[in-house]
Design brief:
Helix content: over 70%
Oligomer: single chain
Order of helices and strands: HHHH
Radius of gyration: 14 Å
Number of strands: 0
Distance between the termini: 27 Å
Shape: globular
Largest sheet: none
Length: 89
């Protein structure tokens, strides 16, 4: 269920602001979105996996907090990331 190293590296390269950027809000949001999508697929097949469901809810909350930060302090970057990842409306 965890992201492979290659997938994680590809996501980081796509959303990083500069060569050494691995922890910006955009990168974190993109990584969380990919994990959420994978875990959602898992939970559709395994309906009674409640511990994974709790983990999913925690990831969604963390991503929501990061998106709220971006929307408040960097609206342009917020609009760009939600458009690229196709989240929210």
């Amino acid at each position: 269920m965890a992201l492979t190293t290659e997938a994680k590296t590809g996501i980081i390269k796509k959303y990083q602001a500069n060569k050494k950027d691995t922890g910006s809000s955009e990168v974190q949001i993109a990584l969380l979105t990919e994990q959420i999508n994978q875990l959602s697929g898992h939970l559709q097949k395994n309906l009674k996996d409640f511990s994974s469901r709790r983990g999913l809810l925690k990831m969604v909350g963390h991503r929501s907090a990061l998106l709220k930060y971006l929307s408040k302090y960097h609206p342009g970057r917020y609009q760009k990331i939600i458009k690229e990842l196709n989240i929210r409306k």
